[in-house]
Design goal:
This protein has 622 residues and is an alpha/beta fold. It folds into three domains: 3-251, Aminohydrolase, N-terminal nucleophile (Ntn) domain (Glutamine Phosphoribosylpyrophosphate, subunit 1, domain 1), CATH 3.60.20; 256-463, Glucose-6-phosphate isomerase like protein, domain 1 (Rossmann fold), CATH 3.40.50; 465-608, Rossmann fold (3-Layer(aba) Sandwich), CATH 3.40.50.10490. Bound molecules: 2-deoxy-2-amino glucitol-6-phosphate. 2-deoxy-2-amino glucitol-6-phosphate (AGP) is lined by residues 314-317, 361-363, 366, 369, 412-414, 502, 618-619.
């Protein structure tokens, strides 16, 4: 996610802003920028791509930017590639290519979040004579504030509240107005923002670490509220422009805990960010009850013409492909192959005309997946990248790209990016099925409704985390753990097993339940843990039978199944229930208990959850 900082007070702003941005680096970013005002002078904007030290060097550690009021930003690209012109701050006027210099603009601003209807707003502003220099949704929202500010002439708070009414999406905004020197205006919906005060100084930040050094007294601005920030004092307003009062809160965290939002590890934080990551990804694909993949360049005609889909990936991304195979084949009646990238790149796979090769990758830099993409292109296949990092190599080299909006993922073990990929592939499956006439209009609407309900259902699964924490303490000394399932449940078992072994170092295998008796069942001993994923009603009884075969050989059974399926408890020792949902999409819910089980088991074993031994977040070598 992007990082926002702001300062107004009696000290020089730029060094404070740089220090705050440095404490937000963990949020992930690809560019950064500052806007600082010296008294009544116009704001001076400086931007830099890459690491924060480039911006610090460009501003002589902030010394070349005099002034006591300013805002700063680290950008995690969502709309528009990582570049100088797309870096924040953005201005209501025009902006030179370098993105730096004094700005003849009434409004200068930074933003964290995603404006879903930025295209229609941009068209409105173009009709009113505005010109745009960047590809970002942020420039649109800054110019929209300017539009209302000039049109109604009632001041910044009014201009901002009118903008908030018009905008759809998530935002944390920090804005400076030429006519209001020394003041910063802020607004928030769904993206984090806090405002701190100290003697004759005020601070804004996306997260606590950025201001903890200066103050522990903060206001948590609520959704759809506006703040008017002056040195040492803050006023808050609701959407009607009426002043409201907020309580001042004392921050008790230490700096390390603060970076993780109060969670013990990034992995647990990211597991809990899954509802938002899935919601943001779905919101980027579903508009007015229709799935729209045109932003990825996938037209309905193209989807109709497909003869086959080859999904190529590594690790958890490959597991997404395994799940997507079942969904696409069942809904769209389209042949799907799922290949490990490291194998695909060296196999001479026959590829019929009109094959779409989909490369799934969180980082967009995995060497095997990149090589596989290049092989697919050499074979003249159409290629689609499903990636989380905007502007990554795989994103740039594929013919088409569908971005997941999970935000930066810090823990080596993927969770929220995996879940975002899962729903992105589900949406692709539903749209492909619909345009090919394989599902009716009514079914299409049902699937979209079911997908849209996933984020809240993930939240409900997370409410059960204490039971998993308890159970993980019982298995912390296990030597072997088997995850089994059939169909989609097998695909989820693959991910559950990888989560367990990569962070707890306990040997684990995932098996298609029907395959156990062909050899592996010889490994089942007394108290061997067998975890069955039981969400597919047509296959449920067969998997239960396979689990009972293991139990009769001494195994201890855990089951993950949907609410109401209480019969499971007749056979299974420990059961985790997940909310009912269309069985094509239930993987998004079934995976969460398995993520939590792996996480808590690793914690119980006193291991480095976020940085497991031998592993890298992105495997950029063969
Ligand atoms: C998953 O928890 C692992 N970190 C690993 O398997 C990962 O999924 C794999 O390396 C692929 O990475 P990518 O999605 O960035 O291509």
């Amino acid at each position: 996610m992007c990082g926002i900082v702001g300062y107004t007070g009696k000290d020089q702003a730029a060094p404070i802003l740089l220090d705050g941005l440095a404490r937000l680096e963990y949020r992930g970013y690809d560019s950064a920028g500052l806007a600082v005002r010296d008294g009544d002078a116009l704001a001076e904007v400086v931007k830099a791509t890459g690491k924060l030290y480039h911006l610090a060097d460009k501003t002589d550690q902030g010394r070349s930017l005099p002034g006591c009021c300013g805002i700063g930003h680290t950008r995690w690209a969502t709309h528009g590639d990582p570049s100088l012109v797309n870096a924040h701050p953005h201005v209501s006027g025009n902006c030179s290519g370098s993105g730096s210099g004094q700005v003849e603009s009434d409004v200068v601003g930074v933003h964290n979040g995603i404006i879903e209807n930025f295209t229609e707003l941009k068209e409105k502003l173009l009709r009113h004579g505005y010109a745009f220099y960047s590809d970002t949704d942020t420039e649109v929202v800054v110019k929209l504030v300017d539009y209302y500010y000039k049109k109604y002439k009632i001041g910044p708070v009014d201009a901002i509240t009118r903008t908030m009414v018009r905008v759809r999406g998530s935002y944390a905004l920090a804005l400076m107005f030429k006519d209001y020197p020394g003041e910063i205006f802020a607004a928030r919906k769904d993206s984090p923002l806090i405002i701190g005060t100290a003697e004759e100084a005020s601070f804004l930040a996306s997260d606590v670490p950025a201001i903890l050094k200066y103050t522990r007294q903060v206001y948590y601005i609520d959704n759809l509220q506006v703040a008017r920030v002056a040195p040492g004092s803050v006023k808050f307003y609701d959407l009607n422009g009426d002043e409201v009062t907020l309580p001042l809160t004392e921050i008790t965290w230490d700096a390390a805990a603060a970076e993780k939002g109060g969670y013990e590890h990034f992995m647990l934080k990211e597991i809990h960010e899954q509802p938002q990551a899935v919601r943001d990804t779905l919101n980027s694909l579903i508009h007015e009850s229709r799935i729209d993949l045109t932003a990825a360049g996938l037209t309905d005609d193209m989807l109709r013409s497909l003869a086959q889909i080859d999904i190529v990936a590594c690790g958890s991304a490959w597991h997404v492909g395994m799940a997507a195979q079942y969904v696409i084949e069942d809904l769209a009646k389209l042949p799907v192959r799922v290949e490990l990238a490291s194998e695909f790149r060296y196999r001479n796979i026959p590829m019929p005309e009109n094959t779409l090769v989909i490369v799934i990758s969180q980082s967009g830099e995995t060497a095997d997946s990149l090589a596989a993409l290049r092989v697919a292109k050499e074979r003249d296949a159409k290629t689609l990248a499903v990636v989380n990092v905007v502007g990554s190599t795989i994103a740039r080299e594929a013919d088409h790209v569908l971005y997941t909006l999970a935000g930066p993922e810090i823990a080596v073990a993927t969770t929220k990016a995996y879940s975002a990929q899962l729903v992105a592939m589900d949406a692709l499956a539903v749209q492909t099925a619909y345009v090919r006439g394989a599902v009716s209009q009514e079914q299409y609407g049902h699937f979209i409704e079911e997908l849209s309900a996933i984020p809240d259902k993930i939240k409900r699964v997370l409410e059960d985390k204490e039971r998993l924490q308890w159970f993980s303490s019982k298995i912390a000394n296990a030597h072997d753990i088997f995850f089994i399932g059939r169909g989609l449940d097998y695909a989820i078992s693959l991910e559950g097993s990888l989560k367990m072994k990569e962070i707890s170092y306990i040997h684990s295998e995932a098996y298609a339940a029907g395959e156990l008796k062909h050899g592996t069942i010889s490994l089942i001993e007394r108290n061997t843990l067998v975890i069955g994923v039981l969400t597919q009603s047509e296959l449920f009884e067969k998997t239960i039978s396979n689990m009972v075969e293991c139990k009769s050989r001494g195994a201890y059974l855990m089951g993950v199944t949907t609410n109401g399926n209480f019969i499971v408890e007749d056979s299974v020792n420990f059961t985790v229930y997940i909310p009912k949902t269309d069985e094509h999409f239930v993987s998004s819910l079934a995976v969460v208990p398995l993520q939590l089980l792996g996480y808590y088991t690793s914690v119980n074993r006193g291991l480095d959850v976020d940085k497991p031994r031998n592993l890298a977040k992105s495997v950029t070598v063969e």
